[in-house]
Amino acid sequence: MKQYVFTILLTAAVAFVLSWAVWRLSLKYKLYPGIRERDVHKTPTPRLGGIAMFIGVVAAFAVSSQHPFFAIIWTQPQQIYALLGATALIVVVGVLDDLWDLDWMIKLGAQFLAAGVIAWFGQLQIYALPLGGMTIFSSWASFTLTVFSIVVVMNAVNFIDGLDGLVAGVCLIANGVFFAYSYMVVRDTGASTFFNLASFIAAVLIGACIGFLPLNWSPARLFMGDAGALMLGLLMACSAIAITGSFDPAIVGDNDSFGRSQLLGAFIPILLPVVVVLLPLLDFGLAVVRRMSKGKSPFSPDRKHLHHRMLDMGHSDRDAVLIFYAWTALVSLSVLLMYIGTTLEWPGDYLFGVLYGVLGIAACLVVTFLPSRRLSAAAAPDPAPAPAPDGAPQTDPAPAQEDAR
Questions:
Q1: How many angstroms separate the Cα of 253 from the Cα of each of 242, 263, 337, 361?
Q2: What stretch of H or E contains 164?
Q3: What does the DSSP assignment read for 116-133?
Q4: Nearest-5° angle of CA 205, CA 210, CA 211?
Q5: Is residue 223 within 8 Å of 94, Cβ to Cβ?
Q6: Looking at residue 384, what DSSP letter applies?
Q7: Less Cβ around it within 10 Å: N or C end of the chain?
Q8: For residue 238, which of 151, 135, 138, 170 has the smallest C-alpha distance?
């Protein structure tokens, strides 16, 4: 465990120092776009935080290559190189979009290309699903399912990037839970390389989010932009595929330590990687349906995401972010507790996780639909305008929120 803690601290330190450096350089050289019509923030804010997060990730992988504990994930170096190469491609395209607002077709093409590099050259694919020993026999079916899964998760994470600290915090919680799960599976089953790779990626993402969040917390001084959000989505998808897609179905049926509930044991490896990104996936699905039903592109931006709806209900931007944190922790911890309950033979097995989920849902529903600040508060005097970055025009005050996607 101490090796993972070191990885988290190293990534966090590099990401924090470079985030501060990127913020200062962006202000000095005016590397921030103007306010667009769809933006909800009013003060020009740098969007290049994804660069700092990416370098932190690369630094962690570089150090791991020299550490004997992580030698197992380097037994297939082409897999790591493909993963880092695809991530670099996404970050470059994301930076270009953050500076010049690329056409959505270009971004989508780059996403499919990056996912293809991982699936084809890295051979990190969904080969099997641990549900009744289900195996994907066609190599092209495996490749296609993998590519589409990565692209969907990338866009799902990117779509919720609309409020200060939202994506960084949600991904921090999700990867924290996923790291705990993957680490316990290795402990309980003696699983192979793929689980260690999943644990390492989750640890790296935890560190990247911790290092970036101080500059992204409301009021944000730096946004991660498309570069950061797409990178988080890509790596989270890959960590999930490393477990789910390469899970040995025999573990479920033959290894009693995996859990006394065979039904739960069959579903957990599929369920948990999904629930940790449940809110992004839900927001992404609703956005696609909403836009296509109006005859628009599924990637055409609007201001009807879940976090915008909470703002319309009367929540402050910070309260809305905290509610998203609560929902993310609720759904992911519920499934994790079900797994822990079966492996430790708690009374009632997974019922403890179900009870936690039911009580948590009730609490989250209350805070979601009873906002502490009603829309009537809008009649209160406006706060003093926040200072604009050096050289940027002063504009009307508003929370330093991300753009609506």
A1: 20, 10, 20, 32
A2: none
A3: HHHHHTS-----EETTTT
A4: 100
A5: no
A6: P
A7: N
A8: 151
Helix axes 317-343, 351-369, angle to 10 degrees: 170
pLDDT band for 404, please (50, 70, 90 cuts): very low
Measured at the CA of 307, the angle between CA 305 and CA 308, to 5 degrees, comes to 65
Burial class for 228, CB neighbours closer than 10 Å (0-12, 13-18, 19+): buried
* 3-class SS of residue 136: coil
Tell whether omega for the bond before 219 is within 30 degrees of 0, i.e. cis. Answer: yes
Q: pLDDT digits over 164-218, tens only? A: 999 999 999 999 999 988 888 777 666 555 568 889 999 999 999 999 999 999 8
**In sequence order, which residues have a C-beta less than 8 Å from that of residue 280 and are 6 or more positions away?**
153, 156, 157, 159, 160, 170, 233
Q: Which two tokens stand for residue 120?
A: 């084809």
pLDDT of 260 reads 44
Say how far apart CA 404 and CA 353 lie, in whole Å. Answer: 35
Between CA 366 and CA 368 the distance in angstroms is: 5
Contact 114, 94 (CB under 8 A): no
Query: Which of 299, 303, 287, 301 minimizes the C-alpha distance to 105?
Result: 299
386 lies in a domain? no
Helix (H, G, I), strand (E, B) or coil at 134: strand
Would you state the torsion angle of the CA atoms of residues 17, 206, 217, 31, taken in this order, to the nearest 10 degrees?
50
- 88 in a domain, yes or no? yes
Q: 279: domain range?
A: 2-32+42-374
Domain contains 399: no
59 assigned to some structural domain: yes
DSSP strands (E only) in 11-140: 128-129, 134-135
**Residue with token string 């859990």:** 259
| 208 within 8 A of 9, measured Cβ to Cβ | no
Are the C-beta atoms of 61 and 238 separated by less than 8 Å?
no
Number of domains in the chain: 1
